[in-house]
Amino acid sequence: MSLNTVATSETTKMENAWTDAIYAQFRRVGIRQVGYVPDAGHSRLIALCRDDPHIADVVLTTEEEGVGLVAGAALGGERAALLMQSSGVGNCVNMFSLLRNCGFACVVLVTMRGEFGEFNPWQVPMGAMTEEVLRLAGFLTYRIEDEGDVEPIVGAGCDMAFDGDLQVAILLSQRLIGRKQWTR
Amino acid sequence: MLDRRAFVKSLLADRGGLLVVPGLGSATYDVAAAGDHPLNFYLWGAMGGTAMIGLGLALARPDRRVAVITGDGDMLMGIGSLATIGVKQPDNLVIVVLDNAHYGETGMQASATAHGIDLAAVALGCRFRHARSVSRIEEATDVRALLHDGKGPILINARIAATDEARVLPLRNGHAIKQRFMAALNAL
After folding, report:
1. How far is C-alpha A33 from the geometric centre of its chain's CA atoms?
2. Structural element, H or E, at residue A32
3. How many A×B Cβ pairs under 8 Å?
4. Which CATH architecture has domain B4-187?
5. Closest CA–CA distance from residue B176 to any residue of chain A (Å)
6. Is A77 on the interface with B (CB under 8 A)?
7. CATH of the domain at A164
8. Is residue A182 part of a domain?
9. What is the pTM of this model?
10. Contact B49 A78 (CB under 8 A)
């Protein structure tokens, strides 16, 4: 999605606000690589990262590639973040071992599907287990429902991850990002 | 067919500041057998992720050369990462696949490359600047030169004999491997 297509509806203003808050934290903590599998909820953040000359945006074929990317970036002294949908968390499970075994800082922003009015039942099983899977894999998890919590929670999560070589996942609830619109 | 140990030893001769990411299993043992080095980020797991670790490192340190040395099983599991790397076109990244067409750690079951799947051709399809297969030890000198000077991304598919070498086990503690690597890289 091009930034030029951004409309002026209330929904879009809200999306801009939480996206801008995340992006501002990326800039503050010096994120240099962002790996992602494209996702509607993350589309504006992806566009902001792509347009930022300080950030290498890496489009992944599957989310677990991003875990390797984060580890390699850290070895080279750079901070990286991953953007994925809740379904992508399931793709990463074994690869997450790399982060724990070596103590690589990792920040994952997860847009939730399969909750709060989900239209597509195929999204529900993974969405329902996403947070638990992340915890089992060693992540600290923080869930955001309200736009006003985005800046403090993303900021605190980034600080904990990068100051302590910890793995932090921030779940952006479907209520925050809005239901996927199935009619157009 | 190449002798894997002799080939890897030739590639890593006089390696200087080369950053090496060996994939789990035999590739890690081969790289360790060539001589332990703090700039080896040995993997003991993360199957399928080796090439992506190489990409993250290559993007973070464009001033350094990065060599991923891994097996055909690991590269097949992470085959999508060849597309990911092709998009980013890191000119300092070379992948060497030690292709014995078998899964050596688990009982030498045949891999897809035993059935004609060609990883060098896949890499070319993924916009690698250069990719080819090698099978003679005389070619090791050329491959070594590519590690240090070739414009990447490059993939070399090294056809090695399906032998069972003695295991040479390097450091296994992930934190220790990471810290040693980062300290050595910072000191370059």
Report:
1. 13
2. strand A31-36
3. 120
4. 3-Layer(aba) Sandwich (3.40)
5. 8
6. yes
7. 3.40.50.970
8. no
9. 0.95
10. no
